[in-house]
Amino acid sequence: MHATGNSRVVSSLYVIVNYITVFFYFSHYLLFLFYLFDCSSMEALILHRLPLSSSLSSLPSLKPKTLHRNPNFRLCCSSTQSETIEEGKLEYKPGMFDGLFLSFFRHKMVEEVGWDSEKPGYDGLIEVVNRLMMKGRTNLETEEAAVRVLRSLFPPFLLELFQLLIAPLGEGKVAAMMVARATALSCQWLMGPCAVNSVDLPDGSSCQSGVLVQKCKYLEESKCVGICINTCKLPTQTFFNEHMGVPLLMEPNFTDYSCQFKFGVSPPPSADDKALHEPCLDICPNVARRRRLSGKNNVDQCPKV
Ligand SMILES: *[C@@H]1O[C@H](CO)[C@@H](O)[C@H](O)[C@H]1NC(C)=O
């Protein structure tokens, strides 16, 4: 009796979470429709948190600091000046829903790893990610586990519907622009300030389907090239490509920790992907550990594909 009560609670919670995800996702779709009709209102919606976005109240805010404007961070073709943007620095203030996103994501990660950290918040998440990295016997295993986590964040039919109905529109450009916006809006709690920008597509056209992460918090906190590649870059590319039908190339820069997402661009074969041939960062604690264990100093091959 008690057990059925519990499982009923759990399943209704699950339904609620699904509804929230669907609502959140389709609000992005709605935002995109606004964008199609009126670029400047879209920009206003995203950057100034006007009615729709504030009613969601989950959207991270970009705080104005100066009135300078960096053309790299223009959201779209609008001629309105966006005053929320200053040269090279966007300040990020976590929104109300960011905590929820973080705990939801961490919960899914913990389910996959089967272990939780005692630390709260982001630090705890990074420890769980480290575990995920250690748990995988091969890099491919780690990647597959991370893809499972990403998939578990969405109700499955939503991904299938997206792939079926939206991914083919406009030769894939509509979906690419949509997910770029959704990423910029909903992932700042994970990566820090980011903004939609324009990228060149393989067909020679350019499209507002890029996201530039200024200084990736995930890389900064995890401090390891291997973690970036195996728990973020490769799984995210695979997830978007195979489960949403949107090709994605991510170009992390291990010098300044920025990262350029290019939706609509397929990743090159791994032999040609520069990011997969980077040496470890000196600050990576795993490198120091491996060096101690092997008693050698020349361990510079990062644990990656
Ligand atoms: C990475 O960032 C540094 C510093 O901003 C820059 O000099 C370098 O060219 C970038 N590397 C790549 C591959 O874009």
Automatic annotation (TrEMBL):
<dbReference type="GO" id="GO:0005506">
    <property type="term" value="F:iron ion binding"/>
</dbReference>
<keyword id="KW-0472">Membrane</keyword>
<dbReference type="InterPro" id="IPR025114">
    <property type="entry name" value="D27-like_C"/>
</dbReference>
<protein>
    <recommendedName>
        <fullName>Beta-carotene isomerase D27-like C-terminal domain-containing protein</fullName>
    </recommendedName>
</protein>
<keyword id="KW-0812">Transmembrane</keyword>
<dbReference type="InterPro" id="IPR038938">
    <property type="entry name" value="D27-like"/>
</dbReference>
<keyword id="KW-1133">Transmembrane helix</keyword>
<feature type="transmembrane region" description="Helical">
    <location>
        <begin position="12"/>
        <end position="37"/>
    </location>
</feature>
<dbReference type="Pfam" id="PF13225">
    <property type="entry name" value="D27-like_C"/>
</dbReference>
<feature type="domain" description="Beta-carotene isomerase D27-like C-terminal">
    <location>
        <begin position="189"/>
        <end position="270"/>
    </location>
</feature>
